[in-house]
Structure formats: C-alpha cells, structure tokens
Specification:
By secondary structure, the chain is α+β, with helices and mostly antiparallel strands. The N terminus is likely disordered. The protein is globular and about 60 Å long. It has 2 domains: about 110 residues, Alpha-Beta Plaits (2-Layer Sandwich), CATH 3.30.70.100; about 60 residues, no CATH class. It has a 4-stranded antiparallel β-sheet.
C-alpha cells in the first residue's frame, strides 16, 4: 500500500503531525533520510503510512511537516517508544534544529498542515466546502456515465468513495496550498 493510500482515514486511525526545522543547506540530506526512514517505519506494527510536507517553493521556510497515520493509539505509542524511532532521532539530529513538535490531529484538522495551532474551524469548514462542491458535482455525473444506473445505495456508496478520493489526493492538497497564507497567516 502506498503512503498516500494509507493516509485514508477510518474512525480508529490516529493521525499525527510532526514539525521539524531543518538546518540551512541540509534540506536534501534531510529529505533523503526521511525517504529511507519511511520505508523502514512502514514495517513497524500498526504504521499505516507517512507523508512529507515540504516548505512552500520560493519561501525562506525550512520547516518540514510529516503526517503519520497509525492503526490506533497503542500502535502510535509503541512506534514513538521504539528503538527504530530512537535511532532515527539520533540520525537526523545533526540535520535539524531543536526537538520535533508533535501533535495528534482530529476531524477536519487532519486535512490541514499543523502549525502552532490549526486554522479556525470556520476556515477549515469553508475550504472543505470549496473542495466538496466540485467533487460531488463531478462524481455524481461521472459515476452514472461510467457505471450506468445503479441501485440508490450502491450509487451513493460509489459516488462518495470517489468524492473522498478526489478530496484526499486532489482537491484538498491544492486548496490548502492555494489558501495557506489565509489559513495560517504569519505574525
């Protein structure tokens, strides 16, 4: 399963956002280490996936985000207490400044990159609404065109599966990138 596919949420999954500030000039080294660790971490019990969020292109930011998904809270605690995670921390220490900022994400907040605090709920709801509308419109027209007439419940389930897929891997990442200055205004 790909890391992106593993980020799909079920009610029992636990999502964690980690922020790291990378030392100037060490960004490539950090990204290479992250890629290697993602592979090793995927073999840990209960790890469902991870996703690296790079600083906005052209910005002076050196702040990276890592979103991780675990099967449950027990697996999350086990991962962060593991020898593999401890070795990872030691390995990247020369590449980063300070300790990781880590927090669990819940509900709509899991779609949004964690800063010092999540955006206000009304902003998250508005951006989600902007993503849901075209996704529902596209899927409610495309599914019958592709699959023909389906029984009501089957049609609803198929349309919603495509809506969630579009939101997770297409619309929300683009909307969040476009509206990031509004969602997380600086100073």
């Amino acid at each position: 399963m790909s890391d992106a596919a593993a980020m799909a949420s079920t009610p029992s999954h636990v999502h964690v956002a980690i922020l790291r500030t990378v030392r100037a000039g060490r960004e490539r080294d950090f990204e290479e280490k992250v890629a290697g660790f993602f592979g090793a971490a995927a073999r840990q019990p209960g790890v469902c996936g991870a996703y690296l969020i790079r600083p906005v292109a052209g910005s002076n930011s050196r702040e990276y985000g890592i979103l991780r998904t675990f099967e449950n809270e027990s697996d999350m605690r086990g991962f962060y207490a593991s020898d593999a995670y401890s070795r990872w921390q030691d390995e990247i220490r020369p590449l980063v400044e300070g300790e990781p900022q880590r927090r669990e994400l819940h509900g709509l907040e899991a779609f949004f990159r964690a800063g010092a605090s999540p955006p206000p709920q009304w902003k998250m709801a508005l951006i989600t609404w902007l993503g849901v509308n075209p996704a529902v419109y596209i899927c409610s027209h495309a599914v019958p065109a592709v699959f023909g007439h389906l029984p009501a419940l089957a049609g609803l389930l198929v349309v919603n599966a495509f809506v969630v897929t579009l939101l997770t891997w297409a619309f929300m990442p683009v909307l969040i990138r476009i509206f990031r200055p509004w969602l997380q205004p600086r100073g």
